[in-house]
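Let us work through a complete example step by step.
Step 1: write down the sequence.
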Amino acid sequence: MVRRIDVTGTDGVRLAAWEFADPPKERAEAAGAPGVLLLHGLMGRASHWAPTARWLAERHRAVGLDQRGHGRSEKPSDGPYTRDAYVSDAEAAIEQLGLGPVTVVGHAMGALTGWQLAAKRPDLVRALVVCDMRASALGAASQREWSDWFASWPLPFATLADVRKWFGEGGEG
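Step 2: predict the structure and record it as tokens.
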């Protein structure tokens, strides 16, 4: 069973959090279980964590967060889409959901967010699992690489087949 919980992030941005649990009885028992916050990568959303979260939910309170601009979370046209905003959003989610101290599991951008959150608020982060994060992700050159890559996209894509061809067939949609 997956339950959506709305959280208020930085600047009032509405964020969608997803709690993964089996039947309601199990959810009630999980209320005292250790929290796990799952943070997706740049091209992801919380649902990418579903298989992992279901497994974790057997012993933990597993929550996936659609980070701002992703999944079912709000996509404010004026942002901010900054490192500080992502970190503050994760901090707000942990506090509002009563997950802390939490184990943060992050992939790529989510790993960087978790890493920065652990440095900013060690009282909220019990442990950190880092998956596929570039150590140089904070540098200006890295930011230019991302900007150049996004600018290279042939937008708008004419068909779904064109999207699949551009990004490759192997990834999750």
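Step 3: interpret the result. The first strand starts at residue 2 and ends at 8.
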